[in-house]
């Protein structure tokens, strides 16, 4: 075990503060990563404040990790010291169930192990990327092909990027397809960029008229103010796919009625309380589908990173120092971020050295 500086919460009611955690020595199949940047996901906040009622303390969040390999176990063949790599939401899974066998580890039937807060169905706690380094099985380490100057903005691809890429691919966003993205936050802004790069006709739905220009800059072909019933009605029955990234409970029917026959709306925002039930007639008439999707498998996450490197896609970020994380959480709650906070982990190392 090695002592590692980190930031975490001792309980649901306490702010994040410096603490020390222990990382295991790299085993034969492990990769030790010096963390350069870590994105700030809304799940981090939900977890440290125990809003999903399953948090193990102390809680060290962070699952949008980019860093440099500093050591590898003697059986590791795919990575070597000096490589630039990423780690997303998972660090392990059972590796033998049907989902794992198909490379869909995020749906592991025995529960994947989260990068933080441990295995889904109970077990020892795990600590995430708000720390100096992390030790991860090579199967859950991703290769980053972006330029060195882009690495901070690559970090959010590991959660926000794959969470939007996977359903866009699964429901075949591409040329000739009309794709809606609901919400322009951390997830939504990635959805717009990715759907645009895949060649779809992209329509962004927002409640804020002020976001119109930014949505077009990010790649939206059209922007619809979803509170405006007349604007919404113009798009009735016309969408091949809608990716709904909004986590606040809202009226799903307003969007379901915009789908073509047999088209799908996929939810990727996780509301703390349920959406009002949709009107079943809107599903029956048109055989429309309402579904959800969770991150993506390791193979697909690598595909997403390669796609983004090839198309020059990164997240729009605001960089913060580790000590400013509590303030960043408060701003995130107000939607006051364009569009993702990323922690510069050099600031944690400096802080630890000064202490
Ligand atoms: Zn996340
Ligand atoms: Zn499995």
UniProtKB/TrEMBL annotation:
Cofactor(s) the record lists: Zn(2+)
UniProt xrefs under SUPFAM superfamilies: GroES-like (SSF50129), NAD(P)-binding Rossmann-fold domains (SSF51735)
Pfam families documented for this protein: ADH_N, ADH_zinc_N
Span of domain Enoyl reductase (ER): 8-343
The organism's place on the tree of life at top rank: Bacteria
CDD domains (alphabetical): CAD1 (cd05283)
EC number: 1.1.-.-
Keywords: Metal-binding, Oxidoreductase, Zinc
Any one GO molecular-function label of the UniProt entry: oxidoreductase activity
Similarity remark: Belongs to the zinc-containing alcohol dehydrogenase family.
Protein name, entry field: NAD(P)-dependent alcohol dehydrogenase
Originating organism: Rhodanobacter geophilus
């Amino acid at each position: 075990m090695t002592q590692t500086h980190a930031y975490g919460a001792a309980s649901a009611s306490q702010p994040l503060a410096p603490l020390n955690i222990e990382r295991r020595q790299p085993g034969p199949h492990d990769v030790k990563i010096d963390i350069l940047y870590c994105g700030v996901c809304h799940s981090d906040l939900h977890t440290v404040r125990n809003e999903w009622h399953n948090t193990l303390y102390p809680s060290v969040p962070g699952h949008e990790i980019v860093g440099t390999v500093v050591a590898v176990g003697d059986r590791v063949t795919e990575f070597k010291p000096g490589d630039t790599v990423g780690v997303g939401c998972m660090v392990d899974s059972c590796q033998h169930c049907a989902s794992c066998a198909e490379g869909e580890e995020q749906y592991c039937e025995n529960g994947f192990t989260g990068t933080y807060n441990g295995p889904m169905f109970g077990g020892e706690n795990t600590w995430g990327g708000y720390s100096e380094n992390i030790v991860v099985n090579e199967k859950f380490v991703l290769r980053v092909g972006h330029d060195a100057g882009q690495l901070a903005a690559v970090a959010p691809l590991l959660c926000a990027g794959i969470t939007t890429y996977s359903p866009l691919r699964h429901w075949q966003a591409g040329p000739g397809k009309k794709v809606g993205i609901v919400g322009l936050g951390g997830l939504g802004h990635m959805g717009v960029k990715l759907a645009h790069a895949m060649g779809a006709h992209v329509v962004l739905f927002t409640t804020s008229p002020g976001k119109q220009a930014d949505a077009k800059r990010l790649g939206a072909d059209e922007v619809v103010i979803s509170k405006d019933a007349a604007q919404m009605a113009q798009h009735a029955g016309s969408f091949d796919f809608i990716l709904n990234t909004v986590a606040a409970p809202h009226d799903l029917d307003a969007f379901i009625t915009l789908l073509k026959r047999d088209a799908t709306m996929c939810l990727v925002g996780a509301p703390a309380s349920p959406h009002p039930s949709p009107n079943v007639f809107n599903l029956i008439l048109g055989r429309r589908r309402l579904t959800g999707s969770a991150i993506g498998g390791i193979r697909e996450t690598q595909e997403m990173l390669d796609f983004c490197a090839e198309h020059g896609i990164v997240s729009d970020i605001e960089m913060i120092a580790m000590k400013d994380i509590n303030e960043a959480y408060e701003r995130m709650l107000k939607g006051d971020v364009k569009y993702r906070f990323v922690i510069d982990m050099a600031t944690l190392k400096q802080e630890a050295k000064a202490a």
